[in-house]
Amino acid sequence: MNKLLTPTAFLLMVLASVSYAQSFEETKERAEQGNARAQYNLALMYVGGRGVPQNNARAYVWWSVAAAQGDNDARGNRDIVSATLTPEQLARGQELATRCLESDYQDCE
User: Fold this and answer.
1) Domain presence at residue 33
2) Is the distance from CB of 36 to CB of 70 less than 8 angstroms?
3) How far is Cα 101 from Cα 63, in angstroms, rounded to an integer?
4) Phi and psi (nearest 5°) for 40?
């Protein structure tokens, strides 16, 4: 069984990483395999612009997906970041999160 990092530990690891892009790709791969903690961490990367351009709408999508798997931290962060989105961005994020879940994490971007 893989040991999952806490959000704080993961963020410190990402910040210390020389290659943000590589960390992003590895995290995205795990997220697309259904790993809720990786989905949470991917949203952290989007909201912080680490290894990928900062994008609160994408963070919303991935936190929504992790929240659908029961991650309460993701649910709280999703609700916070949703306040930064326009109504159009929020609607698009909800649509993408639904599509992501329905495609078994293969159509999330």
Assistant:
1) yes
2) yes
3) 12
4) -60, -50
Dig out the tokens for 2 from the structure: 């893989």
Instruction: For residue 37, give the amino acid letter.
Output: R
Task: Give the list of residues 6+ apart from residue 87 with CB closer than 8 angstroms, or none.
Answer: none
Domain count, the chain: 1
In whole angstroms, give the CA distance from residue 97 to residue 33: 15
Instruction: Kindly report the pTM of this predicted structure.
Output: 0.80
Residue type, 49: G
Is the CB of residue 105 less than 8 Å from the CB of residue 32?
yes
In a domain, residue 2? The reply is no
Q: Is 1 within the bounds of a domain? A: no
What are the tens digits of pLDDT across the range 42-84?
999 999 888 889 999 999 999 999 999 999 999 999 999 999 9
Name residue, tokens 């989007």.
Answer: 46
Domain residues for the domain of 85 are 7-102
